[in-house]
Write a structure and sequence with these properties.
Layout: H1 30-39, H2 50-61, E1 69-73, H3 76-79, E2 87-93, E3 96-106, E4 111-123, E5 127-134, H4 139-150, E6 156-165, E7 168-177, H5 190-199, E8 201-202, E9 205-206, H6 207-220, H7 226-239
Parallel strand pairs: 1-7
Antiparallel strand pairs: 1-5, 2-5, 3-4, 6-7, 8-9
């Protein structure tokens, strides 16, 4: 039987999602990040120990490695999932929201001198995004990659959430904001958010490029997010000032 095209529900997403082989995150692991940080003279003490990260993966995925896994993307996972997936669908997850509260001072999209900003998933009124289906036979390798990326530090914790799609409801793995982490900053003012998005940059690129990519994907999916567009407009203006 021929393999089903992963993009058969949303062919317009194909040119917008980075192929796994071309992704910076395809071979992402803690030592790679440590090397980049050392090269730039940045602190690496915030990186979670490998054993701690693997123990968390084992706990969260216990009893779930024998069936396909859905993963919810609301930010960079939408355009650069860096995992081998069998299907992608547009999804709505109730009870959560995309919020710009992940303050980056570690070097990825910002530094201590000029922090960057990215979105995190937090409690809220609901969030549109994408869900990716990972085939059972790929779970060991691909969940390892997901944890290496999303649990590199303490900013997120893993939860399973109900995701609604046009083809039925699924249970999806999501990485939620960990309010005990010092880089989750729900106290940021709007002005601080705009400045961080306009000025923050690091080895993953600029915070402005991050919000531009997010806005492009939301537009392609015809998802309205007034806060994203407001932040993008004001950050572009400030970056050019």
């Amino acid at each position: 039987m021929s393999q089903i095209d992963p993009f058969h529900h949303h062919p317009n997403l194909r040119p917008l999602i980075t192929p796994r082989a071309e992704s910076f995150f395809a071979d992402f692991h803690a030592e790679k990040v440590r090397a980049m940080l050392r090269e730039r003279g940045l602190d690496e003490d915030w990186i979670s120990p490998d054993a701690e990260r693997e123990a968390d993966r084992a706990r969260v995925m216990a009893g779930r490695m024998d069936r396909d896994l859905w993963v919810f993307g609301y930010g960079s996972l939408m355009w650069d999932p860096a995992v081998r997936f069998a299907e992608v669908r547009r999804a709505w997850v109730p009870g959560v929201a995309r919020r710009f509260i992940l303050c980056d001072t570690k070097g990825a999209r910002g530094t201590e001198d000029m922090p960057g900003l990215m979105a995190a998933l937090d409690k809220g009124d609901g969030c549109h995004g994408l869900v990716f289906r990972l085939a059972t036979e790929d779970l060991e390798a691909e969940t390892y990659s997901l944890w290496a990326r999303e649990r590199i530090g303490q900013a997120y914790h893993a939860e399973f959430l109900r995701a609604e799609t046009a083809f039925g409801e699924v249970e999806a793995l999501a990485f939620m904001a960990n309010h005990e982490a010092d880089n989750i900053r729900p106290d940021l003012t709007h002005e601080q958010q705009v400045t961080m998005l306009a000025k923050g940059t690091g080895f993953l690129g600029s915070s402005l490029a991050y919000v531009e990519n997010l806005a492009e994907h939301l537009d392609t999916l015809r998802i309205e997010d007034a806060e994203v567009m407001r932040l993008l407009t004001e950050a572009r203006a400030r970056a050019g000032a």
